[in-house]
Amino acid sequence: MVKVPVLPEIRISRTTNSRLATVDFNNIPFGKVFSDHMFVWDYKDGSWQEPSIQPFADLSLSPATSALHYGQSIFEGMKANKDVRSGDVLMFRPDQNAKRLNASAVRMGMPTFDEHMFLSALKTLVKLDRDWIPDVPDSALYLRPFYFGADNFIG
User: Fold this and answer.
1) Cβ–Cβ under 8 Å, residues 62 and 69
2) In angstroms, rounded to a whole number, what is the distance separating the alpha carbons of residues 66 and 154?
3) C-alpha angle 48-92-99 in degrees, rounded to nearest 5
4) Can you count the helices (H) and strands (E) in the chain?
């Protein structure tokens, strides 16, 4: 018998000001256009806090943030495409992205996360922003999971 983990509910705050109507899907420069939402999951006091999907926004960081001083950050990259026949959303091996992120976290001395939660959050986020996946041939919604040390610490 396989034990299925009980995952915390992902709190979702939808944007009230979508930028989707302003996007020219025939002319999207890589890394310049961002979808409406982002997944946020903070680690604090020895545990992962409430996961959330919230409107895309700037991050607020202390000048003492450890990622700025020690380069304590990791990232992955993956794509979400639409199947041309069915319209279903497809992602290529996101479980492997989760494994690589956790392997990097171990090497960086950062806490690992529940990979089932990561995959659940990824699927929820892509479902919420599925209209951002271009219908243009050979196009995709690029997903950039990143994880960084946000402790205010120098020393």
Assistant:
1) no
2) 7
3) 35
4) 3, 10
